[in-house]
Structures are given as structure tokens and as C-alpha cells.
């Protein structure tokens, strides 16, 4: 027998299964078990400009000229970046761009090659 999940609203452990929903008797919160199962680590952390999932080691192409902060130069459209790493944060791609060195990019400005 599997244990019922803890209530997301109040943290109660006294939840029960009622038909297709889980119910918390303490706060009255109702939720489906499917929604809880779908929010997991199986969703990709980053997606490119076209919505394709990105993974560590992928090769991407820059789709817009990117001006560098704190330096002179621009990463031109069409620049290929190999062997990316996905990281948490606003700039979710960590990589080395040839001719510029290590930098962080936003996934919305690249497409999977």
C-alpha cells in the first residue's frame, strides 16, 4: 500500500484518496495525484528559442547579435557554441565561445544545432 501525499497547503499528513482526488480534512484542499506526478525532475531545465529541450554537451547556434557587457565586442548571429552546460539561474547556459572565452548565455537567444 502506498502512502498518501502530504497536503501542499497546510502540510497535514491526514490526507485521503476520494475517487480521483486527494483531500485534506484539515484545510479542505483538494488536488489530483496526476498533477503532483507530472511536476518532477523529468522536465528539461532549459529550452532553446524554438522550444527544444537543451542538455549538457549539446551544440547550439546564436540567433541574435549579443553585445558583451563590460567589454568590447559582439557575439555574431550564427556563431556555433559546442559542449554547453546547463546551470540554474537567469543565464542558464555555461559555455566557451571561440574567440571570446568562457561566458554565460540565455537559452532564449540560441537554437539547437
TrEMBL record:
Region ranges (Disordered): 33-54
Top-level division of the source organism's lineage: Bacteria
Stretches assigned to the Protein YjdM N-terminal domain: 5-32
Entries under InterPro entries matching the protein: YjdM (IPR004624), YjdM_C (IPR013988), YjdM_N (IPR013987)
Domain Protein YjdM C-terminal residue range list: 47-113
UniProt similarity note: Belongs to the YjdM family.
Name of protein: Zinc ribbon domain-containing protein YjdM
Amino acid at each position: 500500500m502506498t502512502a498518501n501525499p502530504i497536503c501542499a497547503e497546510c502540510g497535514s499528513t491526514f490526507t485521503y484518496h476520494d475517487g480521483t482526488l486527494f483531500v485534506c480534512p484539515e484545510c479542505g484542499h483538494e488536488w489530483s495525484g496526476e498533477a503532483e506526478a507530472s511536476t518532477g525532475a523529468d522536465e528539461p531545465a532549459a529550452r532553446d528559442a524554438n522550444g527544444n529541450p537543451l542538455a549538457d554537451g549539446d551544440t547550439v547556434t546564436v540567433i541574435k547579435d549579443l553585445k558583451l557587457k563590460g567589454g568590447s565586442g559582439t557575439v555574431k548571429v550564427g556563431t556555433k557554441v559546442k559542449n554547453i552546460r546547463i546551470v540554474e539561474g537567469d543565464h542558464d547556459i555555461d559555455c566557451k565561445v571561440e574567440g571570446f572565452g568562457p561566458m554565460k548565455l540565455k537559452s532564449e537567444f540560441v537554437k539547437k544545432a
